[in-house]
């Protein structure tokens, strides 16, 4: 016998038993699509194909503001290979659409209101033919002066039949005559940021024999998109079906409805499947962006640093159309004072139309802009009072039971002081050695032009808050069905997996509740009941709650026969590790045995408690729940070049309950890194309303080389009793908080005010050193 063979049969060398597979809530269960995405086999929307496929292209306006004199499509129609050309004249139903308000034309007809607005769409047998045909559509414009300054929108001629004012919210809370011993003022500007989805925006429309159409899209809100499409096509909602396919991840409502809608029109007109894959330039021109914002603040505090009054004016640039500007403004005004106790607050907020690109929902909308401003104000107060910035914040932090400036009592856990103390006490990273022999990263990179002697280190703090779910009376509801057959469970829910981990959570919920190992989540389409949009943590709360309720109903169906047989109630039975046992040990069987040959199913809904709109004074219980975060930023700044390197971000977050540790950590780290881009690089420049450099060369996203060390120093698990599982939204609040913390650290390093995001190099240069 060879040594090799002897070794293989030696008992001491027997392979250890396999590690148990993560199971149920609290485990780091791997996403079901992780392997496919890693190997490059995951089918994204851009990979779609159909027999007899035509290709689409969209003609977009080169002007931000113009009157359309004429549109001549004859040259495009006559090109070989062109199958259809559609304009506003070919829209059979509603000529307008919009997420928050239907005010945006499918195709511009009389007036162009922003750069990139769709004018016409073409279907052809080859993508190059489609693009050439779109370029062959001749549009005669009378160019008009664009209104690009939101402050000028108040006095300018109406850019839209609905006027230039989208919404005005005056918030009055407390005594207007209140004043503090110390007063600081500031003006702040937040630039235009883009969701910049890495995956291409793409879709496929397939006509149906009944005269309807199916749209295959990476939609994040399929039922809303279906209803919008049906209205535009002049069809009943049941004649339009949306199949969600290949969502590569979303940090906003990433799909432009103005991109989706022409697909169905072309498919209905040609009777053929039609596909469109947007170029990067088309993505920048088509979808919505984060609201550029102008903020003016005045903070009053007493001699001990406690806030007495906050006054603010907030102006959101909504761009050409309303979209979700009203909701963003409500968040900005409501959270304008931050997670601090403010007895008197007087906030004026406006969202206006301009000829800039449309703004809309981008993660943390409204809350992110005001966080950068109120945290800058807290730094100014600390400096004027000669207090440590963290100490000043601790003297004012919000807690459960306190009242927001909207008059709403904070009933959810609000451990803001605990979060701040956690990041404050976390050890600081070591200082770099100021010698040329030791290699360390200078701002601008290891091969940067800076000198170590010009580098200053700064430490800053940010406290942020966001609301979860919809607000101001939004009807949040989701429906889910759980089926179990032959020991295999299937979840049907129209909650779209956008990278937030819903499909993994749904599997964990069913595993936990039913003790079933194998759980599948069915693909999403609009034949299923609505689940709503995939944003603000709503699928963890509302859709996860619906799955849990349905699973518990199936659990009751499973246990009732056993409980009846042994003369006990189902509450006296428990399911653990795939086994069903009774409290007294009399009953012990396996879930697999009891499910053999059975088919069980149940459907349930989850609807959180209702909210109400803000009234004429900005008062009302407008939010279901809130989440909080504290971040300490450490930066190195080259005060000669103005370059900034984020060394470390220490994060403490209020998460309610950890449902999937690995997934939660990834979401927080991703949100923090997104905030680094907002703070330092991401700025979509639009001089006179024209998008300059609509590509990923001109729009600088942070890369892995820009990502700092991210230390999650504390996760506070204080469960929110009104939320399923007690969990809170995790992704938006670090995005909101990290830009403010980074700006605070740059202020600490340079002594400069830093009143604009992203931070320009000249704002970090210190002269006379």
TrEMBL record:
Region (Disordered): 1-36
MF (Gene Ontology): iron ion binding; oxidoreductase activity
SMART domains reported in the protein's UniProt record: Ald_Xan_dh_C (SM01008)
Sequence ranges assigned to domain Aldehyde oxidase/xanthine dehydrogenase a/b hammerhead in this UniProt record: 39-145
Highest taxon above the source species: Bacteria
Compositionally biased intervals (Low complexity): 1-13
InterPro entries: Ald_Oxase/Xan_DH_a/b, Ald_Oxase/Xan_DH_a/b_sf, Ald_Oxase/xanthine_DH-like, AldOxase/xan_DH_MoCoBD1, AldOxase/xan_DH_MoCoBD2, AldOxase/xan_DH_Mopterin-bd_sf
Protein name: Oxidoreductase
The species this protein was found in: Streptomyces phaeofaciens
């Amino acid at each position: 016998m060879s040594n090799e063979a002897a070794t293989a049969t030696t008992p001491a060398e027997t392979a250890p038993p396999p590690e148990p597979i993560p199971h149920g809530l609290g485990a780091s269960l791997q996403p079901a699509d992780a392997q496919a995405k890693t190997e490059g086999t995951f089918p994204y929307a851009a990979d779609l194909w159909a027999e007899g496929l035509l290709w689409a292209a969209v003609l977009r306006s080169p002007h931000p503001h113009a009157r359309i004199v004429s549109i001549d499509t004859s040259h495009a129609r006559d090109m070989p290979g062109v199958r259809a050309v559609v304009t506003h004249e070919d829209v059979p139903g509603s000529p307008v659409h919009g997420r928050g308000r239907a005010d945006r034309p499918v195709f511009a007809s009389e007036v162009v209101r922003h750069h990139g607005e769709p004018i016409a769409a073409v279907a052809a047998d080859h993508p190059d033919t489609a693009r050439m045909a779109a370029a062959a559509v001749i549009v005669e414009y009378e160019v008009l002066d664009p209104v690009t300054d939101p402050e000028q929108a108040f006095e300018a001629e109406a850019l839209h039949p609905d006027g230039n004012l989208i919404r005005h919210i005056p918030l009055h809370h407390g005594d207007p005559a209140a004043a503090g011993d110390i007063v600081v003022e500031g003006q702040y500007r937040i630039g235009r940021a883009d969701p910049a989805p890495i995956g291409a925006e793409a879709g496929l429309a397939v006509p149906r024999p009944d005269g309807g159409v199916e749209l295959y899209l990476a939609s994040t809100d399929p039922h809303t998109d279906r209803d919008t499409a049906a209205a535009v096509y002049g069809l009943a909602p049941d004649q339009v079906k949306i199949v969600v396919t290949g969502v590569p991840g979303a940090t906003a409502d990433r799909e432009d409805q103005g991109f989706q809608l022409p697909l169905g029109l072309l498919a209905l007109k040609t009777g053929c499947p039609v596909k469109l894959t947007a170029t990067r330039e088309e993505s920048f021109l088509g979808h919505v962006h984060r609201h550029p914002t102008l903020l003016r603040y005045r903070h009053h505090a007493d001699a001990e640093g406690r806030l007495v009054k906050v006054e603010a004016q907030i102006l959101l640039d909504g761009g050409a159309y309303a979209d979700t500007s009203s909701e963003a403004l409500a968040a900005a005004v409501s959270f304008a004072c931050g997670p601090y106790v403010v007895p008197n607050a007087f906030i004026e907020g406006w969202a206006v139309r301009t000829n800039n690109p449309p703004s809309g929902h981008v993660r943390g909308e409204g809350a992110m802009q005001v966080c950068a401003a109120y945290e800058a104000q807290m730094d100014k107060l600390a400096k004027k009072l000669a207090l440590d910035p963290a100490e000043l914040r601790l003297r004012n932090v919000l807690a459960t039971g306190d009242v927001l400036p909207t008059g709403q009592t904070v009933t959810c856990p609000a451990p803001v002081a605990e979060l701040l103390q956690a990041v404050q006490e976390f050890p600081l990273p070591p200082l770099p050695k100021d010698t040329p022999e030791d290699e360390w990263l200078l701002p601008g990179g290891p091969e940067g032009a800076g000198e170590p002697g010009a580098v200053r280190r700064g430490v800053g703090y940010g406290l942020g808050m966001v609301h979860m779910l919809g607000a101001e009376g939004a009807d949040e509801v989701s429906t889910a069905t759980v089926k179990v057959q032959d020991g295999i469970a299937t979840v049907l829910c129209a909650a779209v997996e956008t990278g937030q981990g819903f499909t993994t959570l749904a599997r964990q919920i069913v595993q936990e509740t039913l003790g079933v190992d194998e759980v599948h989540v069915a693909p999403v389409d609009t034949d299923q009941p609505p689940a709503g949009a995939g944003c603000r943590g709503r699928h963890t709360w509302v859709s996860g709650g619906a799955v849990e309720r349905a699973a518990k109903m199936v659990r009751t169906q499973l246990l009732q026969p056993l409980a009846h047989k042994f003369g006990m109630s189902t509450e006296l039975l428990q399911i653990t590790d795939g086994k069903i046992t009774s409290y007294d040990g009399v009953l012990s069987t396996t879930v697999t045995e009891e499910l053999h040959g059975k088919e069980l199913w149940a459907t349930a809904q989850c609807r959180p408690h209702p909210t109400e709109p803000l009234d004429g004074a900005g008062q009302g219980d407008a939010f279901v729940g809130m989440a909080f975060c504290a971040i300490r930023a450490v930066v190195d700044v080259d005060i000669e070049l103005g370059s900034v390197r984020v060394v470390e971000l220490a994060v403490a977050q209020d998460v309610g309950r950890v449902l999937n540790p690995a997934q939660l950590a990834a979401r927080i780290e991703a949100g923090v890194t997104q905030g680094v881009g907002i703070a330092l690089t991401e700025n979509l420049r639009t001089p006179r309303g024209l998008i300059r450099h609509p590509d990923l060369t001109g729009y600088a996203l942070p890369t892995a080389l820009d990502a700092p060390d991210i230390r999650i120093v504390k996760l506070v698990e204080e469960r929110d009793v009104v939320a399923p599982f007690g969990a809170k939204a995790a992704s938006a609040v670090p995005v909101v908080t990290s830009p403010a913390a980074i700006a605070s650290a740059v202020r600490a390093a340079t002594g400069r005010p830093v009143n604009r995001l992203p931070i320009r190099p000249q704002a970090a240069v210190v002269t006379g050193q």
